[in-house]
């Protein structure tokens, strides 16, 4: 018994230290813990502005233009599918084909991002995408497209999206100062959200109205424009091979690369690093938890909107855009809020907003309340993403960033199909006992309750002291990047 006294005393001292750090979070984390957070973001349009550098704005332009093309063609593919078949199962499977690469291809994409020059990888992927959609557009124009070919196109474009998105995210720290990562991520996410949702959707509708082949030609042009912009970014962007973490000079990865190792070994190394990290592991768990819950609820959102809110197609489209509007607005102040109240409180605030959003949807039949909750939820999503992406970019050694980032995102995406299945099962079970309306509300109310558990987990594992310890800890060693 006496041997346990020092342990209890040590635990009590650690708890007191955490409480003191949480009380000081608004002052210390608000001032920018370890240089993570950014300077205030002014309410400018999401375009070039001072402080982030020319290389960032080239990457911003290339990524945003590419995302517009992605958004257009990912709407056109399901529409074209309905022209080729009336089978609801095949239409649903086409959506699976587009998203399946996120489960199957994320880990190899992370290895490639750590093996080769990241800018060149993005160039190659967009050239491949341009070729695929150009050929597809020609086949559609010639009325020669078939359903099996369209499935192959969906898989190929999904793979390109996985590689491009992961690589652009891990390249960003090489072109932006560490203190500006949150501002840079906010600008990038805000632009992609507003242009992808508010511009991409109506553009797709106009293009489809003129001709089914035009969305694919549009995507080919956007991919080539992205390539031209990336060609203007100078420097070598190979993964760093030192022990440092965070952003490096653009030419820091230059030099002869070490011998290549088996892909399986490199993937395992990234997974082990993520799972052994005291902050990023609970962050990944929290993301998987949150995404699974949201997927369970929003998998039946269209039925809720039609049957409970009584919305038609046009009104549902406007309601669906409210989240994107909130995300766009949130991108302007995410870095400022993080600097004012600290990253841990921001993450907890975002989780509270998620819970309120689900509670509002589950408890009301008033459209404007649901729309307002969706706007707030969109803001919370961007706040969460800006902070967590910036933390990964800051904490992970550059030589491992591609693999760790892909493992992290795989956990987040991989739990969503499970959540969707559970949400559908819950609706079916409740409908037999309590009726249709109660069944459609049940996933949202259930997620509200489960969110309380997530908040408890975050208070214990993602508090201010945990984030500060991770930011102040010595950088973990990075393994050599293979060529």
From TrEMBL:
Pfam short name (any one): MFS_3
Major facilitator superfamily (MFS) profile domain location: 55-463
Record region (Disordered): 1-45, 241-261
The UniProt record lists the keyword Disulfide bond: no
Membrane-protein topology: Multi-pass membrane protein
Database matches in PROSITE patterns: MFS
Record-given protein name: Transmembrane secretion effector
Organism listed in the record: Streptomyces aidingensis
